[in-house]
Specification:
Blueprint lengths: L7 E6 L6 H6 L8 E7 L3 H14 L4 E7 L1 H9 L6 E4 L2 H9 L8 E9 L12 E3 L4 E8 L4 E5 L6 E6 L4 E6 L7 E3 L12 E4 L11 E9 L2 E6 L10 E3 L16
Parallel strand pairs: 1-4, 1-5, 2-3, 2-4
Antiparallel strand pairs: 5-8, 6-7, 6-15, 7-8, 9-10, 9-12, 10-11, 11-14, 12-13, 13-14
Helix pairs in contact: 3-4
């Protein structure tokens, strides 16, 4: 390794990866009290919040984040800078870090989000729905002055009440960072079939009912997957719709530092 310190790798698609702090925590040895994170500058707000949460859950541990361009952070790691976690917002930077042999393991995708070029100045707010002409893609999770982050249906942190098929069976659409989210908590003996239409259920104030979500793509025992109506991997234009959901969302944590 030429004396360089290897770091854990976390590839973030477009923006924040919510589970990065717990994932990294499992690999931090007990004597250490500082967790150093190198993260892309676009992740500043998100990792500030994650660091605050991690410190709350792990007394005695201090999270220190260094934010810069992903390529700049790779150059620092190659030059010998020490870090425990490297979070990039693009595949090229992660590939460069891997080629430079500064990663302790294979990069993992922890989140599937998109960043849109509209923010608070344009009337965008947390909780608003992200949609295309084909259907729902997710909801606005974070808002800056000029940009906003949409948490996609496929994201590991996405949970949406849905209704499946003509019989109207209720379930939860749960992202797992794959292209096809899972259907959870289907009633016992449900007669869900491949091709059944999946729409929002309107429960818990997450989304109003009957927004198109997708269709049942596969059934393997108890594992049921849904193909989203919108092509989440190829989003060129997105509509942000105010469905009056902001009041149902918890206020975001504010980092202490």
């Amino acid at each position: 390794m030429n004396g360089r310190t290897r770091v854990l790798a976390a590839l973030v698609l477009a923006t924040v990866l919510a589970p990065v702090a717990p994932a990294a925590a499992a690999r931090v040895s007990a004597p250490r009290h500082t967790l150093t994170v190198f993260a892309a500058a676009s992740l500043t707000d998100a990792f500030g919040e994650l660091g605050h949460r991690f410190e709350t859950d792990h007394p005695g541990v201090t999270v220190r984040c260094a934010f810069a361009g992903s390529q700049q952070l790779v150059a620092q790691l190659v030059a010998g800078a020490r870090a425990d976690v490297f979070a990039a917002a693009d595949t090229r930077s992660m590939s460069d870090a891997r080629a430079a042999d500064v990663l302790a393991d294979e990069p993992r995708i922890f989140a599937r989000n998109v960043l849109v070029d509209a923010g608070a100045r344009d009337g965008v707010a947390r909780g608003q729905a992200g949609m295309t002409g084909e259907g729902l893609i997710g909801r606005v999770a974070e808002v800056g002055e000029r940009t906003a982050r949409i948490l996609l249906l496929s994201d590991l942190n996405s949970r949406i009440p849905v209704v499946v098929g003509a019989s109207g069976q209720h379930a939860i659409l749960a992202g797992d960072n794959s292209a096809e989210p899972l259907l959870l908590f289907l009633p016992a003996g449900s007669n869900v079939k491949v091709g059944d239409r999946v729409v929002t259920g309107g429960a818990q104030g997450v989304f109003p009912p009957d927004l198109p979500v997708g269709t049942v793509a596969s059934i393997d025992g108890d594992t049921v997957r849904v193909a989203p109506s919108a092509e989440l991997a190829r989003l060129d234009y997105v509509r942000i719709v105010d469905l009056g959901l902001s009041a149902f969302l918890p206020r975001p944590l504010v980092p202490s530092r």
